[in-house]
Amino acid sequence: MASSAPSLRPDRVRLSMLLVPKEGLSLEDFRRHWIENHASLFSSLPVVKKNLLKYEQYHIDSTTTAAVARQFQQEPTAWAGQVIFEAESLEKILEVFQDEEYQRIVVPDEEKFVKRTEILPLVGQYATIVGN
């Protein structure tokens, strides 16, 4: 029986952002604020509830990541986290960041723990190869 090749999902888009902690903030404090404070603040916005299908935080284990990086002859990374947003379109994701409440409430909170000038955004479609 021939299996079909994986394909990109045309009905979803993801925006992933790599994050660096604000200078002077410990990795522990970065993680704690992000998961304990920022997550509920961000996810409480009506525009987030309306537009996003998924909001995930990926907390990077810097020690293990550095060890694995050395196996690939790479230097350790400054990234401490990755945030993933999923929606039906990029426009729906961008509406979140253009929202007045986001600008007024969430941006000041981000400035407490993220070095916003070093956020690396990555946009694309995805294909699930293994898994549900």
Would you summarize the structure shown here?
This protein has 132 residues and is α+β, with helices and mostly antiparallel strands.
Main pleated-sheet profile: 4 strands, antiparallel
User: Ranges with pLDDT <50 over ≥5 residues?
Assistant: none
Proportion in helices: 40-55%
Q: State the helix count.
A: 5
Distance between the termini: 21 Å
Oligomeric assembly = single chain
Pick out its properties:
single chain, 132 residues, alpha+beta, four-stranded antiparallel sheet, 5 helices, 4 strands, 19% strand
Provide a descriptive summary of the structure in words.
This protein is an alpha+beta fold and 132 residues long. The protein is built from 5 helices and 4 strands, in the order βααβαβααβ. Strands 2-3-1-4 form a 4-stranded antiparallel sheet. Helix 1 (27-43) packs antiparallel against helix 5 (100-113).
